[in-house]
Amino acid sequence: MTESSTDPSNPEQDAEEFLASEDVGLEDGQMAYECSSWAGESRGLLGSLLVSAGINHAWQGTTVTVHEADEERVDALIDDVLASARPALDPRVAKLVFVVGSWPVALQTELVDQLTAAQIPYEWDMQGDLIVRESDEEEVEAVLELLPDPEEESELHSSELSSDDGVAVHELLDRVFMTASRLVKHPTDAAATVGLVDANSVLQQLAVPFGFEPPQWDRLVSAARAVAEAIEPPATSVADTDSDGPTEPATDSEIMELARTLVDQVRLYV
Asked: Pick from 133, 270, 253, 251: which is nearest to 212 by CA?
């Protein structure tokens, strides 16, 4: 884990600054906005506004594609999102970056919980690294001292799929979205249940990918785990079972509801 200084300035932005280059695979009459620097909540808000406005759009990771004819309306919605966003840190103060972007999501979540408990404000940069006020350096380092060794945690959560591989991550989320969507309607579908459980096993091992905020990614991962465990409950020992006996298997309606929650989480990125 390393740290570096950042420019405390925070210039105003407008919708045009989010226009993506044409190498995202645009068709004639389409344009794209790259929103990787936004918090997941902000992307979710934009998605909701686009739906409410009846604007056809498609997400590819953190990039949203729309028709050129809707440019003015989309720009107005993006301006609305920007106006409602509030930075966690005063843009005028000096800041430090702690490089934690490659940490497993469970460890990043624990870091967030500790920072919140200590009332230390923070932000995330585009690489998923932690930004704090320079004046809070000692307090943040004290929090980090309480956490497990990130290198050991990374070894425990290693995977053949790298969180830096944006295409592979997007394909994985597509699998999660398709299988979960199927389970919303057919909770006993054999292919969907096996596919969701397999995809979840990979998802649980990933560090937070580029363009995702740890809290939002953790909610997505937790939602996937809930569905997988409803389909295939984790094994328990005799000591883990209480006097009432082992937990009952999830019902079809419970699986459908959990799958619906997962679909809502993944929809922000696919």
From this structure: 270
- Residue 257 resides in a domain: yes
Cα of 106 vs its chain's centroid, Å: 13
- Domain assignment of residue 3, yes or no: no
Domain boundary among 84, 110, 128: 84
Q: Do residue 170 and residue 245 come from a single domain?
A: yes
* N-term to C-term CA, the chain: 31
Phi-psi domain of 147 (left: phi exceeds 0; alpha: psi -120 through 50; beta: other):
beta
Within 67-213, residue ranges assigned H as helices are 71-84, 105-117, 137-145, 150-156, 166-185, 190-203
If we measure between CA atoms, which residue out of 105, 121, 99, 263 comes closest to residue 196?
263
Domain-embedded: residue 106: yes
104 phi and psi, to 5 degrees? -60, 150
Q: How many domains does the chain have?
A: 3
DSSP classification of residue 225: H
> Do the Cβ atoms of 145 and 105 come closer than 8 Å?
no
pLDDT digits (tens, 9 = 90+) for 98-151: 988 777 666 777 787 788 888 888 877 766 678 899 999 999 999 999 887 776
Long-range Cβ pairs for the range 136-141 (8 Å, 24+):
137/3, 137/96, 140/96, 140/98, 140/115
Question: Which residues is 59 bridged to in the sheet?
Answer: 64
Pick from 60, 84, 108: which residue ends a domain?
84
pTM confidence score = 0.44
Same domain, 241 and 195: yes
Percent helix, strand, coil in the chain, to 5, is 50, 10, 35
